């Protein structure tokens, strides 16, 4: 049996016996999972008894099982004061916004947390989502009352360092020194001339590395040295525009926010009329309270274990390949050179820092699986969206026909061919080209290894081993 990445347990797709195989391989079966399966009427009595055989029943005590505590670590932080502050903050968001992406909020705050740990390299984050998806009004707005945060609407090639002498501090970098730069809409970058876009991108690469020097027309050098964290909201159109500069060295991680039900979102939006100032002000206050709460954010942040570092290294190597640049002819679209794949060191450090600072944000002293899940989402969201759509449709083991792939993704045949060509050149896919029947597409063996090491999905279910008989559980 083949299980797809991100597959959900639906009784129409996977039968009861298959679910048992998945449960046995992953070894993560808990009473909580069984309850969910029972509530959805997916398992019969025989299957329930078999699952209980895999994991003995937990006694009815006030203490949660280790698995349950690990699952609920983020939603219910262990420190009561932290839990209360987080719940008050998120309840305010949930009151006024329909199905807010609270995981994206946690990621945004974790990036801000990393700025205040001097030994952490800066993390730069794009928050991508369609217009009116709450990326600015929730994620960016939550940052604005935090220390050292400056809101920006637009930048030019002269914004960061300026040779203007009419004021004491005309340059943005000199105004903020070490700080967090929050862009409410970085998509304005696309409206600039290509030459200015290239100049801004070049400046950002130097700023990320902690030093930037610019020579003015008067022959006087202007320099800055420090740490700048960038968190920018943008629409998905920016991803396409920014992709042409990845071969120069990518600095940004990404988190994508999906569109929710439009009717329900519109109803919530109408309830906000007349309360916009209160919603915004209260959100900033609650975010600042959670951020500056006692006990303080863990400093230094906890370190990843050796096994966790191995998982992050596999994530970084996989994502670096998936978002590599493939040189194509501007007219024929033919691949004209070897693909450019970035080194995975910067990506690995950024992901590890994000995971570590997420744990610190919730005042933990050790990395949990919930922190690793944050790293997993950002890593997968950092793959270009259309490439990610292709990869997610391919089984970890086994193959898929190009015709089926086209149906599953909903993309035109020419687009599927273009994307699979890029991914084949990058060493992600192996395509068996056929003249009569559809091409067969598989993930390469190396990618399968990286994926398993990074995300530990169930690739192929193993036969269920006979279990010793147990007394019925009442």
Describe the 3D structure.
The two termini are 32 Å apart. Helix 8 (172-176) links the parallel strand 2 and strand 3. The chain has a five-stranded parallel beta sheet with strand order 2-3-6-1-7. A three-stranded antiparallel beta sheet has the order 8-10-9. The chain is built from 19 helices and ten strands. Helix 13 runs parallel beside helix 15. The chain has a domain at 80-369: Rossmann fold. It has helices at residues 16-26, 31-39, 45-54, 66-71, 80-96, 102-115, 135-140, 172-176, 194-208, 237-243, 262-271, 276-291, 306-322, 345-361, 369-381, 385-392, 402-409, 413-425, 445-455; strands at residues 124-128, 149-152, 179-183, 211-215, 221-225, 228-234, 252-256, 400-401, 429-432, 440-443. By secondary structure, it is an alpha/beta fold.
Strand order of the largest sheet: 2-3-6-1-7
Beta-strand percentage range = 5-15%
Distance between the termini: 32 Å
Total strands: 10
CATH architecture type of the domain at 80-369? 3-Layer(aba) Sandwich
- From the helix content, strand content and strand pairing, which structural class follows? alpha/beta
* Average of pLDDT: 81
Number of helices: 19
* CATH fold-level assignment of the domain at 80-369: Rossmann fold
Radius of gyration: 24 Å
Please outline the major beta sheet: 5 strands, parallel
Q: Spans of 5+ residues with little confidence (pLDDT < 50)?
A: 6-76, 457-474
Order of helices and strands: HHHHHHEHEHEHEEEHEHHHHHHEHHEEH
* Helical residue percent band: 40-55%
Tell me the name of the CATH class of the domain at 80-369: Alpha Beta
């Amino acid at each position: 049996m083949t299980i797809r990445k991100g597959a959900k347990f639906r009784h129409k797709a996977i039968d009861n016996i298959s679910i048992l195989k998945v449960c046995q391989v992953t070894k993560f079966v808990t009473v909580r999972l069984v309850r969910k399966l029972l509530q959805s009427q997916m398992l019969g009595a025989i299957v329930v008894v078999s699952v209980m055989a895999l994991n003995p029943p937990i006694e009815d005590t006030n203490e949660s099982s280790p698995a349950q505590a690990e699952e609920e670590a983020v939603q219910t932080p262990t420190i009561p004061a932290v839990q209360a502050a987080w719940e008050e903050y998120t309840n305010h968001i949930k009151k006024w916004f329909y199905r807010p992406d609270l995981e994206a909020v946690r990621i945004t705050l974790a990036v801000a947390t990393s700025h205040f740990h001097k030994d952490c390299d800066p993390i730069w984050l794009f928050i991508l989502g369609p217009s009116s998806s709450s990326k600015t009004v929730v994620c960016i707005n939550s940052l604005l009352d935090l220390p050292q945060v400056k809101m920006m609407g637009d930048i030019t090639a002269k914004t960061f360092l300026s040779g203007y002498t009419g004021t004491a501090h005309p340059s943005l970098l000199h105004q903020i020194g070490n700080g967090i730069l929050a862009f409410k809409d970085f998509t304005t970058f696309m409206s600039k001339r290509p030459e200015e876009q290239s100049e801004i991108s070049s400046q950002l690469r130097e700023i990320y590395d902690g030093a930037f020097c610019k020579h003015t027309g008067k022959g006087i050098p202007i320099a800055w040295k420090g740490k700048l964290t960038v968190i920018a909201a943008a629409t998905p159109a920016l991803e396409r525009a920014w992709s042409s500069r990845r071969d120069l060295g990518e600095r940004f991680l990404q988190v994508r926010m999906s569109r929710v039900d439009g009717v329900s979102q519109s109803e919530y939006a109408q309830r906000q009329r007349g309360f916009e100032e209160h919603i915004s002000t209260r959100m900033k206050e609650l975010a600042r309270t959670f951020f500056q709460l006692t006990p303080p954010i863990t400093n230094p942040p906890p370190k990843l274990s050796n096994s966790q570092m191995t998982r992050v290294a596999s994530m970084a190597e996989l994502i670096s390949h998936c978002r590599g640049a493939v040189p194509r002819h501007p007219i024929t679209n033919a691949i004209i050179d070897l693909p450019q794949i970035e080194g995975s060191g910067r990506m690995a450090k950024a992901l590890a820092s994000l995971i570590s600072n997420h744990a610190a944000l919730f005042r933990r002293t050790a990395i949990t699986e919930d922190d690793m899940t944050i790293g997993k989402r950002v890593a997968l969201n950092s793959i270009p969206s259309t490439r990610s759509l292709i990869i997610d449709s391919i089984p970890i083991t086994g193959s898929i026909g190009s015709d089926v792939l086209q149906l599953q993704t909903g993309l035109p045949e020419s687009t599927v061919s273009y994307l699979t060509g890029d991914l084949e050149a990058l060493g992600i896919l192996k395509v068996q080209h056929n003249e009569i029947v559809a091409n067969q597409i598989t993930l390469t063996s190396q990618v399968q290894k990286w994926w398993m090491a990074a995300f530990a999905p169930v690739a192929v279910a193993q036969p269920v081993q006979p279990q010793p008989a147990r007394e019925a559980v009442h």
